[in-house]
Amino acid sequence: MKTLGDTLKCAREEKDLILRKVAAEVDIDQSLISKFEKNERKPTMEQIIRLAKFYDLSERELIINWYSEKIAEELKYTESTSEILKVAEEKINYYKAQENGK
User: Fold this and answer.
1) Considering only CA atoms, which of 6, 76, 1 is closest in space to residue 38?
2) What is the 3-state secondary structure (H, E, C) of 12-45?
3) Using CA of residue 9, residue 10, residue 16, residue 21, what is the dihedral sign?
4) Closest listed residue to residue 45, CA positions, set 27, 25, 67, 23
5) pLDDT tens-digit series, residues 84-95
6) Among positive and negative, which fits the CA dihedral 31, 33, 34, 38?
7) Alpha-carbon distance 102 to 99, whole Å?
């Protein structure tokens, strides 16, 4: 399974780009992009969108990867993760139904 950092690094290497070039094009600090690639820091949603556009990657897939890593990091030492995720999905559906009913 590829991490978000792996995906970003592979995309950069496939285009044969150096960090400095990417940083200049997407207006994100070079050291920050390096930390994203090493999974030492998580990009913001805005940065994810910029990187997806620059690398011509699926924005949807990167966002799914980003959210799933945030959730996995939060729950990795928690018991009953499957139940927590199921209840969270039910709550999301409830909230959406409430918004659509307004």
Assistant:
1) 6
2) HHHCCCCHHHHHHHHCCCHHHHHHHHCCCCCCCH
3) negative
4) 67
5) 999 999 999 999
6) positive
7) 5
